[in-house]
Amino acid sequence: MSKTLPKDFLMGGASAAYQVEGATKEDGKGRVLWDDFLEKQGRFSPDPAADFYHRYDEDLTLAEEYGVQVIRVSIAWSRIFPDGAGKVEPRGVAYYHKLFAACAKHHIVPYVTLHHFDTPERLHELGDWLSQEMLDDFLAFAKYCFKEFPEVKYWITINEPTSMAVQQYTSGTFPPAEKGRFDKTFQAEHNQILIHSKIVNAYKDMDLGGEIGIVHALQTVYPYSDSAGDKHAAALQDALENRLYLDGTLAGEYHKETLDLIKEILDANDQPMFKYNDEEMAEISKAAHQLNFVGVNNYFSKWLREYNGASETIHNGTGAKGTSVSRLHGIGEEKKPDDVETTDWDWSIYPKGMHDILMRIHDDYPLVPDIYVTENGIGLKESLPKDATSDTVIDDPKRIDYLKKYFSAIADAINDGANVKGYFIWSLQDQFSWTNGYSKRYGLFFVDFPTQKRYVKKSAYWFKKLSETHEIE
Ligand code: BGP
Description:
By secondary structure, this protein is of the alpha/beta class. It contains 15 helices and 17 strands. Helix 3 runs parallel beside helix 5, helix 9 runs parallel beside helix 10 (228-251) and helix 13 (351-364) runs parallel beside helix 14 (397-415). It is globular, with a radius of gyration of 21 Å. It binds 6-O-phosphono-beta-D-galactopyranose.
């Protein structure tokens, strides 16, 4: 018998401003941390992306037609405040009002992220999440948005604080591309938890009647074997990637065991503990008690084994299967079991990891009322057939298979008690990927980037049926 989702389960599509909008130099938009970084790298450009800045209505029309009820979009901070603070750019403000009006026209509810990896350049240069000015300006930007966009009823403070900090200061895949700086990673993590909390508390004080949450990258971590060394390596990796955030944002405190694991990582690397104080922890606790929802981004799981060498990370940014390496001094080494299937980008396909992370939130972090899966999906190498016509449907059986398995795991978690309210596929349409450019496609809708023409994928038909019947077939 097929599994079912609850009748009021929301079906959605996800996006992020820098990955879909394009138009990075249009209508007074300010520069962000990625502009210089990508120009210097010379591998790919954030323009045109999916040209959502001009084609949002076309995408929302498709979304509505294919059963999408909710959508994740982010506001590009530098479209509103080109310099991060100070002068407001009215054309940026007008764009988002138009976008939200179009969502309403298409009966799609926007869940709006305030920061999705796109720090304005000036603030990035001051130290990004490590700079007090950045934190102050982000709070001011958030309050501005709450007042300016009352049509938005669902806000997300920060997308994936962990992956931002880890990729900026541990693996070096995001600008400023530093490696092995666990001290900066944890400080940036704490600073994001703190400013997220201040924003949640400010939003609740404004009493605007909407909901506010945060989105975490939560990749489930398992020990490679039952050995004590592998189990401990998994616990350390989990503290780095999941646990500090979950503790801070969902429990409102850092548990002693979490702090001990973090200190162990920092000691092994001769780096100091991150700074936090009682006043900050009171703010964090207050926010955790009034947070409406947590968003879970889960794509893959990790297996860790004991490792005592130097740090070495190699990112598979091209889809050359088997090229990624992650060995972190003071933590452990990633090693997937042979029987776990992987994508071309070495991401494991492991739906049980989705079930387990949803249950962990349900079991260990009971304060948070609602859970959404805010990102999940599979990146594939897809191309347009040579003889394509405007009616061509792109065949993507691997995506349908992936979605079936992950939705089934979500249905199991709901049956086991997790309050999962909805699901946002990554991604609504094909988009630009931060470290993989245009070759890793995730969308329900294929975008031919040179012409910007959209083609429907078979997975969109599957998604529509699920949205209508709530039966996973
Ligand atoms: C998440 C981000 C998204 C998106 C996604 C896919 O971490 O929130 O912005 O990029 O991952 O990742 P990638 O583009 O690296 O395949």
